[in-house]
Prior knowledge:
Blueprint: H1 2-22, H2 26-40, H3 50-64, H4 77-87, H5 89-110, E1 115-124, E2 130-131, E3 147-148, E4 153-164, H6 165-236, H7 242-276, H8 303-313, H9 315-336, E5 341-351, E6 360-369, H10 373-443, H11 449-484, H12 498-510
Antiparallel strand pairs: 1-4, 2-3, 4-5, 5-6
Amino acid sequence: MEAMRLNGLRSCSCSSVILRRLKPTGAVAMLLSALVLAGCGAVSVQPYSEAELKALTATDRATAQQDVPPISAPLTMEQAIARALKYNLERRVKMLEEALAFDQLDTATWDMLPRFMAQAGYSRRNKDLITSSVDSVTGQPSLAHPYVSSDRAHTTSDLGLTWNLLDFGLSYIAAKQQADRVLIATERRRKAMHLLLQDVVTAFWRTASNQKLSEQVTQTIINAESALEDARRAESERVRSPIDALRYQRQLLENLRLLETIEQDLAAGRLELAQLINAPPGMHFRVVEPDERLSTPLLGMPMQQMEEMAMTHNADIREQQYNSRIAVEETKRAMLKLFPNLSFNTGIRHDSDRYMINNTWNETGLQLSYNIFNLLAAPSQKKLAEAGVKLADQRRIATLMTVLTQVYLSRMQYETAYRQYLRSDEIWHADEKIAEHSRNRELVQTQSRLELVSNNAAAIVSMLRRYQSMAQVQNMRGKLQATLGMEPEIGSVDELSLDELTRQVADGLQQ
């Protein structure tokens, strides 16, 4: 790449030397100058170097963690949600997209104003502008000598106001469409917030289960490996029959594989929660397990009320409604282009040409224009606009029916998840009692270590499934709330401090 860059510079310098030797004039000089500029302006491929990539990634990583307070105490559910709302990077992207839509609306509003133009120019010619005239009756050359009518060099300046009626109408419709796009960006931000809340709650319960079970899993793995060593030693000493010894080892290995899978699954929950709240991936933090008492007020809500709430508050339905309104405005925009164009301009002009008697003057004009081919294109334009409206309406109707189906499906999944949690809780209580009896029997040495390991593993699996069922209940409740368009009422995330946002999130979750 460096060689390509040097070759480009060398070709530019050589071309400059050739031009100095030839000393061309006129059109040839202009042509050669253009060729030299084109050669010097060639752009070469310049990838980032390894040092530049390292510096860029280091800067991006520091920017991602900028203004994010460290986690100094165990996190509650409300604090985790508040941190996700305030510092999650994907949510920041959605908020910036919404801010960009507002800025585009401001720009579209300015487009409706007239154009107030200020211009200045300089003109020079190498020869005088000499003209002659002929007699208008005889057509013979005038006896007067040819005369100069303009300076070789003169400057011009204009200050004018131009207003176009058609451009104003099109800009007005475009501004209305952009206002609807702002609302669409807001609904997309709401939808992203709903998904973020679901993910945070699920990852939080997985982290809580990791915190609760990791010590038990580790201790059970140690006991299983110790029992496996004893079983292999017994096999080598032929204390038991080979078949029984191998079956014993196989059952221990199955329990070990199950426990190691659980250990790996538990470790992933903390990483997912750290990514959602924008904490460093390697940071170790603890969470405060929330109250496990589940309230299910949504299950008592009538389905008709759920349908009405979803049709008025669901983010996807609102987005398609705004898209339909944009399509209707696009029809007006297409029809407006078929009208004549009326433009008005006024301004002050000045020319420094000394041959002019009036160097400064005011100019006003009114112009009406119409493209005749618009009459031929009108049917096609109208058909295209109506097709866009029909497509937007069909998408809105399809989204509406999809959301109504999601209401029924989400409620059914929520109810099923709640029942499964109750069943998992009962199974866990039973397995926990069995494991406790096994530990008591192991103390008096009335059972094998295999039975103790198996019972402990079963209790751990039951507790894990209980936590998973709890997370599933919370996830399905969040999904149903997102389908209904329910969300915690909070203020501006940027203006609120983390503590204030945490309090508002707690109040919103209670509501």
